[in-house]
Amino acid sequence: MAKNKLDLLYKLESEKEEKLRLNFIQAEQNFHANQQKLNGLNDFRLEYSQQLHQKALQGLSSAGFGQYHAFINKIEQAITQQASTVATAKRVVDQRRKLWLEQQVKAKAIAKLIEKKALEQQHKLAKAEQKMLDEFATNIFMRRKQAQ
């Protein structure tokens, strides 16, 4: 493969890697935001449960207790839904991390191939230069020998 084709391929694979890296970062941010929402819901449930406990100590009607309990159940449903969202977001993060790392390996392999081709080219040039210097030295030696 010609050097410019490899360079183009490396550029395309690097751009794809960058896009996958950004997708991974976005998925991570989404996961953390959803995790914070879940933590907030858990804190809210705890706070509301503590309020219920305080009201119960002060004396709470059965209707009031029912309302608190119903609201806490709604919070728990929201927590269950949010926990599911967090689990999905975590799977997305893991999937995008895997894709990004696989693409990183591809891009690095192409970079290695480019490096290898460049070294081969340097060796060819060095060998050609050495051959030319050997021929030059041989010609000088032969001229001196003929001149004697």
From TrEMBL:
Record membrane topology: Peripheral membrane protein
UniProt keyword terms in alphabetical order: Bacterial flagellum biogenesis, Bacterial flagellum protein export, Cell membrane, Cell projection, Chemotaxis, Cilium, Flagellum, Membrane, Protein transport, Transport
Record Pfam families: FliJ
DNA repair keyword on record: no
Compartment annotation: Cell membrane
Domain of life: Bacteria
Family, as annotated: Belongs to the FliJ family.
Name of the protein this chain belongs to: Flagellar FliJ protein
Organism: Pseudoalteromonas viridis
